[in-house]
Structure formats: C-alpha cells, structure tokens
Amino acid sequence: MKFPFRLEKAPPPSTLRRALLPVRALVATFLAGAIPILAAGANPLTAYYQMAAGSLGDMIAITEVFVRAAPLMLTGLAIAIAFRAKFWNIGAEGQLYAGAILGTLVAVNFSELPFWIHIPFMIVAGMIGGALCALPGILKIKLKVGDVVITLMLNFIMIILTSYLVQNVLKDPFTRWPQSPPITDSATYPILIPFTRFHLGIVIALFVALVVGYGLIEYTALGYEIKAVGSNEIASRLAGINPTALTIKTAIISGSFAGLAGIGEVAGIRHHLIATLSPVPIGYGLTGVVIAVISGLNPLSVVLVAFLFSIIINGSQTMSRLTGVPIFLSEIFQGLALGFSLLFLFLDQYRIRRVR
Amino acid sequence: MMQAELVTFGFVIAMAAASIRIATSLMYATLGEMITERSGILNLGIEGLMILGAMTAFITTYATHNLTLGVCATILVGLVEGLVMAVVYGRIGTNQHVWGVAFTIANFGLAYFIYRLYFGGTAGVMSTIIPYAPVRIPFLADIPVLGPILFEQYAYTYVALILFVVFAIVFKYTIWGLIITVVGDNPAAADTAGISVYRTRYIAVTLGAIFMALGGSFLSIAQFNAFLFEIVAGRGWIAIALVTIGNWKPMRCLFVAILFGFIDALQLRLQALGMNEITLAGTAITIPFQLFLALPYVLTILFLVISSRKADYPTALLTPYRREE
C-alpha cells in the first residue's frame, strides 16, 4: 500500500496566517457543524442564530456568558502557558478541583478576617493547591510521557478526593447533600452587577489572563524562556536555559491559574465545595485544552475564544429547546474545533505533495 | 464492617466470577490501548470511542432486535474511526495526545447527539433491550471452583480471555509482535530494517480502536441493557492506567484488569449493602469506597514514579515518525 502523497516541511507560515488560526478553525467548525444540525432536521443558520440569541439575548444572559467564560479563560490560559513550554498539562480539571479544595478550607474558616485579607488568602491557597496538583507532572523530566499520563490521572484523583471530602471530612452537617459548609461572607466574591451572578472572580480572571498571562509571556525573562523552549528545544538548551527549572516553574504557574478557576467557582458561584464544579464528563479542564490550542497558545486570543465557547455552551440550551437539535452539539463543536485547529497547525508546517 | 458471613466459600466464588464479568469491558479497552501503545502511539481517544461503541451497539440492537448485528455495527464503527485515528496518529503524529482529547470530546458529543436524535427528548422511560446472557459451557462449568468462576461467563468474556492469550503469544513468539515492538521502540531502526512504520502503526491503531469500541459495547448490550448517561464512566482512562500498571505486557495487563474488576465488584457490593467504608476487623482503620475508585489512578502514578527508569514503556511513545525529515 503506497501512500500517494508525501509530506514536506513548508516555510514557516506568515504571522498573519498564524494569527488567523482561530478564525480559520472556527469557520471550518461552523461549516462542518452544519452537518449534525441538518441531520437533526433543522436549519443551521436558524440554529446558530438561536445559539447567539439564547446566550446574548438579554442582560442576564450576557452576564451568564461572562460567568461561564471566567473558568474557561483561566483553564485555557493555564494550558496555553504549559503547552508553550512543551509541558503537556492535560490536568487542568484536577488542578481546578485542587485549588477549590484548598481555597474552600480557607474560605469556610477564619470568619473573623476582614474580606480584604480573607479573599487574597483564599486565592493564594487555591493557587497553591492548583500548583501542587500540577507539580507531579514534572516527572516528564525523567519519563517522556510523565506529564501527559500523570496530569491526566490526577484529574480523576482530585474529583474523587473532592467527592470524598464533601461526603465525610468536609461535609456540611446541616444538610444531607454532599457539599461542604457554606463559605463565610468575608471569603465570598462580591456580586458586581446586582441581581446577576457577575462576581468579582470574573474581573480577576480577565485581569489575570489579559495582564498577568500576557505580560508574563511577552515581557518577562521567564516568558522568553518558555517561548524559546516552545519554538526550538535544542537551541534553547544551547542558550543556557535549564529545562528542569523551566518545567517546574511552568507547572507551578499553569497549575495555579487552573486552581484560581476552581476558587472562582466556589467563591463566586456555588459558595460551597461540591464534586460537580465543572461539567461532566467534558469539564472546564478539557475545554481549556480546546480553547488554548485554537488560540494558538496566545493569552489574548484565549480570552476571546473563551467568550466564544461560553456563548456556544450557554446558547446550546436555548438552541436545543427551540430547534430540537440535541444539546450535545456543543461537545461536537468543541471536538471539531480542536481537530480543525490541530489540522491547520499541521498543514501550516508541512506541504502535501503528490508522489507519482 | 465486614460481616463474617460475607466471607463464605460461596461468596468468594461469586466474587471471583463477578470480578471477571465486570472486568470484561476493561479487558477489551486495556488490550486495545496496549496494542496501540506498543506501536508507539498513545490513544487518548479511547474514552470517547468506548462511548461511541456503547451507543452504536445499543441503537443497532434496539432497531434490529439482533445482538449480533449490534456487535457487527460496533466493529464497523471501530474500524472506520480506527482508520481515521490511524491516519491522524500515524501520519500527522505531532500532538497525538491533544488529537486524542479532540477525538474523545467529539465522540462523546456525537454518541449522545445521535442517541438523543434517535430516541427524542429526555422525557419518558429509558429505552432498554434484552441484553446478552451468560453462556454456561457444558461439562467445564461442572468443574468445582473453577467451573462457576470461568465457565459461566458472557461470550464477550470468553473472547476477551482468548484474545489476551493470542496477543500474549503474538507479542512473545511471533514476528508480528516483534515488528510492533520495534516500531514502538525505535521506528527509525525499524524503517532501516525494511519495516513499514506507517503500516504497522495503522494496523495497531485500527485494531486497538476496534477493541476499544467493543469494550464500550459490552456495557450497553451485556453488562447493562440500556445506554445510560455516563455508562462508560471513565473506563477508557482506567484502561490507560491499567496498561501502565500492566507494564505493557499482555498477561500482566489481563491480571490487573481482573484485579480492578474485583475492586469494582467489591465496591459495588459494599455500596449495595449500604456501606460506604470498610472497617478492618478489630482495628480503627476505615477504608472509604472512594479509595477503591481512585486506586487505578493512584497506582499508575506510583508505578511511574517508582519504576520510571525500569518501566518497559515503548521508547517512541508519543514520538511522531516521519520519513521525509
């Protein structure tokens, strides 16, 4: 069986072409996504319209898009930074829960603290939780598949641990539900727009993604090292970058951002710890992989793409109700978008030549 | 608390039989992932493919009232998806773990999308089928102890056990096993020796995908009789764990699959008895059932940490191979 095509390394794609990756992937996704919609007997344009109308139709809906986008941009950012440094963190989901656990421990106690100490204290605890959960991935230094397999396994360990905690040690004695006691008022993210769920964590997520994440990558020595390893591992080693130290730093930063996402869900939305902070089984951690890759691992694009997926996920509900297209279209979209991004990334690097 | 009557002879035999029965889905998944990884490819699409397999088998059986057709349709879907995965993993190769995530997300969405489309909204009773029943093998089932454990199982289970023996032989004694192993360890050397790396990986990935889909189908048309939400419940991820703990060796993988079938059976039994923890007789040590659930994942990490240098993992795992570079 001779494959009639051959792959050749192509010259690196232009900056514009690379910057347009999210647009290309999303156009392809919306085109291919029309097939399941047609199969469900609906008009794709109507379905897309309902998707947008459902998630952006009124003020409350728009604030809900922000509510959903906050954890997505943080897990997306966590993974974008990790992937840039070739630290294959598949475990943002686990780091989200680890952050939520440590953050909750701080948030349900210390009720005597003023909020301006309690909230930062909780945030730091959550970020440490996320970082600790990402650290075992540094085994990749010794074992090539270490980061992928270990961070993947930690997802399930952390969800099971959360489920154990909220049924036993951390269980709220005053309810029969598996949940922790409510967090204290001084650790609750205040609501910034009355009568909505638009909470402080959304502003924190935006700040972290746009300022901290972008600044870290573009303006710090560490960001420079991460980019160097990402573009050429061997050259970066020759330039004196210590891969072990860099992997550890990346794991800590990546995990702490994902941990912050967990804090946002507890302190901003749920107000207690539960084992279903993130959708099952395609949680914010996996969607974060989708968002990071489509964004070309760029923190600014991560924010935009997080909003777009928030619109798709939130809008699928209305779309499903009004058009009869099953709600699982949203997962098909995520899979397609990730697949197309990877395909275009590949096609930008290689040329396909016919062999005769 | 572990009551004394629980640990009778009959109970032990029933538990052993249940462990093997419950392990069947994991056996297929673990075998599929093991073959794939031995050729140097990590297929994170396993969870989604199992869900798709479960859906395919269920809907086909529901529509045709024919379990055999359900199995055939699953094999077909596994074959088609496997070929797509083979081209993606084998040819494109880079970011295969991220591709795997894409496959899992898309297949999860696709499976439940089609199921909803076929059966309509969420309202109403859950559709069910008459699932496979265990097959009692005459004479062999009459052997004391071994009979009821090994020879009153599903046809699926017999096939899985035979497949493990076959692949143990293939990997240990045949040239095909050697070819897959060499491709997984050192693709460049394999290529120099005249072995087609691409073709070997295509075959390993496709075959693996068929087994993964079958592993899912066992759940919906044998172990259960419906396509429940979360029916696969992470068994694909557990299979990745089991391949690692099984050190990429067929019989060891089979052993750990059955071991985790046992843990699963024990955990289900305890929950059915309304116990969510075990107090070890006469001690203050209690084991919450979540520990059982977390065990495969925890052991995987421990195994990798402890034996990272000695682990027999395929050296070229995750490494794309491209001739024209």
Name the CATH class of chain A.
Mainly Alpha
| Fraction of residues in helix of chain B | 55-70%
Mean pLDDT of chain B: 89
Number of strands of chain A: 2
List the domain count of chain A as a whole number. 1
Strand order in space, largest sheet of chain A:
1-2
N-to-C CA distance of chain B = 62 Å
CATH topology of chain A: ABC transporter involved in vitamin B12 uptake, BtuC
Q: How would the global form of chain A be characterised? A: globular
* Distance N to C terminus of chain A: 14 Å
- CATH topology category name of chain B: ABC transporter involved in vitamin B12 uptake, BtuC
Q: Helical stretch count of chain A? A: 14
Q: Indicate the proportion of strand residues of chain A.
A: under 5%
Q: What's the architecture of chain A, going by CATH?
A: Orthogonal Bundle
The ordered H/E elements of chain B are HHHHEHEHHHHHHEEH
Q: What is the CATH C-level name of chain B? A: Mainly Alpha
Low-confidence stretches of chain A: none
Summarize the structure.
The complex is a heterodimer of chains A (356) and B (325). With 356 residues, chain A is mostly helical. Chain A has 14 helices and two strands.
Task: Draw up the topology in text.
The complex is a heterodimer of chains A (356) and B (325).
Chain A: E1 5-9, H1 15-19, H2 21-39, H3 44-56, H4 59-84, H5 92-108, H6 115-134, H7 146-167, H8 200-219, H9 221-231, H10 233-238, H11 243-270, H12 284-294, H13 299-323, H14 329-349, E2 350-354
Antiparallel strand pairs in A: 1-2
Helix pairs in contact in A: 2-14, 3-13, 4-8, 4-11, 4-12, 4-13, 5-6, 5-7, 5-11, 5-12, 6-11, 8-9, 8-11, 8-13, 12-13, 12-14, 13-14
Chain B: H1 9-38, H2 46-64, H3 67-92, H4 96-119, E1 135-136, H5 146-150, E2 152-153, H6 155-173, H7 175-185, H8 187-192, H9 197-223, H10 235-245, H11 250-272, E3 277-279, E4 286-288, H12 289-307
Antiparallel strand pairs in B: 1-2, 3-4
Helix pairs in contact in B: 1-6, 1-9, 1-10, 1-11, 2-3, 2-4, 2-9, 2-10, 3-9, 6-7, 10-11, 10-12, 11-12
